[in-house]
Design goal:
By secondary structure, the protein is α/β, with parallel strands linked by helices. It has 13 helices and 23 strands. The strands form six sheets. Strands 11-10-9-5-2-1-15-12 form an eight-stranded parallel β-sheet. Strands 16-17-18-23-20 form a five-stranded antiparallel β-sheet. Bound molecules: 6-O-alpha-D-glucopyranosyl-D-fructose (ISL).
Length: 542
């Protein structure tokens, strides 16, 4: 029986937990997480207090990009279980009061998708190729790529198509903004549009509450494929985003208007969250107009530095631009593509990362985030304070970025290491057999769910309490007002809560009120005054 709330505006203030299926829990013992593993652990997520889950792709895929290379959008990959398990997962989550968001990957298919396999059998440039970007190369025999576009994962964004009858280079190329095993779809082809709408309906009919849209800003490319003048250092989620002809083209908005009509035709309406990586909050908000996407990840916030004035500016800018189109803000600190925030926010001296201060800042940053109005995304393991794993041996790394750049860009495996559930045992309870597709460091045991559950002051208990209070006090639905506070600190009120944070080298003293929750046991109340040491945050009752 579904126990989800009847609130159709739930997405405006929800806390959504990102489950990375490969690394959450492995029920069949093959070393790779799976859907039955997730189902077994749903009570953990319900007890954590999240409103919804977003699952990264679990569809049939050769896994050249960890499942973002989809060969069949309607079927689960056997590594992750049966297709029926996906439906069971939705039903079980609903019983526990949580909604479920799946991931749709519309920018590209896998090179093993039947469409691409069929295209490779036909002469390049012929009709069937219109589903992909198949373009004649430069030079007399087409031996040069059509333009200078680069793959986000390193190297060229073009691969030459072999002539199907001879196997020799044909002088025609296909576009792949990511790995060569991920050919970009051509959204000018009506069949591409129709098929994706059918996929949306397929899962909506099976009860899924919404979709996260992969590379939502990438679907439409500038006509004529003009050169972009880019160079390899420009990419990466931690870098500034530039305006380039292969991203954020105006034509993309019509696609989402059509998708919104599909979502709105359901009762209750289904929702979207776009992965929209664009240059400014203004262009980001264009995707959030009332007839387009409901929400989109706020990467401007994710990229923000541990610096009070800067953070306040990013929060204000985000709130303003979202409000202009009537959309809620979203907030996110970690995901499967970026260094975990316990490491990213850590002070560094040379090669030495101060992990303790990193964790302190991560906890404080999470408390700030969870008090902000709008919806918040948590990435599995951040509630345990997991750091980025930096010592994965080269031969265990799977991220195509690592391989396409010959190891120059280390890639994203370090934030994808399987979750430690238990203090001891091989793979710390992740897998029944002890195997795990990426090696876990020894210290994962101390950070396990078992080690932290019920332990006062643990990161896990801090998150549980924050989610309980956020819900009870409707923080996600409040209005934020800034309070004057000393340099390198932040203070704001939302509903009846004051949030304070010390982000510089000095402690912050604040008139005492009831302390609701602190990011550190070192936050103390003495004689009507609360003192926050550097790198801490607290929630106080007004
Ligand atoms: O587009 C970008 C730069 O302009 C990138 O930041 C891009 O948005 C990001 O790499 C997209 O990530 C998503 O799609 C990838 C997949 O590997 C990631 O895991 C996924 O989150 C390809 O499907």
């Amino acid at each position: 029986m579904s126990n989800v709330s009847v609130d159709t505006d739930w997405w405006r203030h929800a806390v959504i937990y990102q489950v990375y299926p490969r690394s959450f829990a492995d029920a069949n013992g093959d070393g790779m997480g799976d859907l039955p593993g997730i189902i077994d652990r749903l009570p953990y997520l319900a007890a954590l207090g999240v409103d919804a889950l977003w699952l990264n792709p679990f569809y049939a895929s050769p896994q050249h990009d960890a499942g973002y290379d989809v060969a069949d959008y309607r079927r689960a990959d056997e590594r992750f279980g049966e297709t029926a398990d996906a439906e069971r997962l939705i039903a079980t989550a609903h019983d526990l009061g949580m909604r479920v968001i799946f991931d749709i990957v519309p920018n590209h298919t896998s090179s093993e998708h039947p469409w691409f396999v069929e295209a490779l059998r036909t002469p390049p440039g012929s009709g069937i190729w219109s589903r992909y970007h198949c373009v004649r190369g430069r030079g007399p025999t087409g031996e040069e790529p059509p333009n200078d576009w680069l793959s986000v994962f390193g190297g060229l964004a073009w691969t030459q198509i072999p002539d199907p009858s001879t196997g020799e280079p044909s002088g025609w190329w296909y576009l792949h903004l990511f790995d060569s095993a991920q050919p970009d779809l051509n959204w000018n082809d009506p069949e591409v549009r129709d098929e994706h709408e059918r996929v949306l309906r397929h899962w909506f009919d099976r009860g899924v509450d919404g979709f996260r849209i992969d590379v939502a800003h990438g679907l439409v490319k500038t006509e004529g494929y003009p050169d972009s003048g880019e160079h390899p250092d420009m990419y990466g989620l931690e870098n500034e985003v530039l305006v380039l002809p292969q991203w954020d083209q105006p034509g993309v908005h019509d696609i989402y208007r059509a998708w919104r009509r599909v979502a709105d035709s359901y009762d209750p309406p289904r929702v979207f969250c776009g992965e929209v990586v664009v240059a400014t909050p203004e262009s980001h908000s264009m995707y959030l107009r009332p007839d387009e996407l409901h929400t989109a990840f706020n990467f401007h916030y994710l990229r923000s530095r541990w610096e009070a004035a800067h953070l306040r500016e990013v929060i204000d800018h985000s709130l303003e631009t979202a409000a202009q189109v009537g959309a809620p803000c979203t907030w996110v600190l970690s995901n499967h593509d970026i260094r975990r925030h316990a490491t990213r926010l850590a002070p560094e001296a040379g090669d030495v990362v101060d992990a303790n201060r990193g964790l302190a800042r991560a906890r404080a940053a999470s408390l700030i985030m969870l008090a902000l109005p709008g919806s918040a995304y948590l990435y599995q393991g951040e509630e345990l304070g997991l750091p980025e794993v930096t010592d994965i041996p080269d031969d265990k790394r799977e991220d195509p970025t690592f391989h396409r750049t010959n190891g120059e860009v280390v890639g994203r495996d370090g934030c994808r290491v399987p979750i430690p559930w238990r203090t001891t045992g091989a793979s710390f309870g992740f897998s029944d057999t002890g195997a795990s597709w990426l090696p876990q460091p020894e210290y994962f045991g101390e950070l396990s769910v078992e080690a932290q559950a019920g332990s006062a002051g643990s990161t896990l208990e801090m998150y549980r309490e924050a989610l309980r209070l956020r819900h009870q006090l409707s923080l996600g639905e409040g209005t934020l007002s800034w309070l004057d506070s000393p340099e390198d600190t932040l203070a704001f009120t939302i509903n009846n809560v004051t949030v304070v944070a010390a982000m510089g080298e000095q402690p912050l003293a604040w008139p005492a009120a009831e302390l609701l929750l602190a990011s550190s046991p070192d936050v103390v109340v003495v004689d009507g005054q609360i003192t926050l040491p550097p790198d801490t945050a607290a929630w106080l009752r007004l």
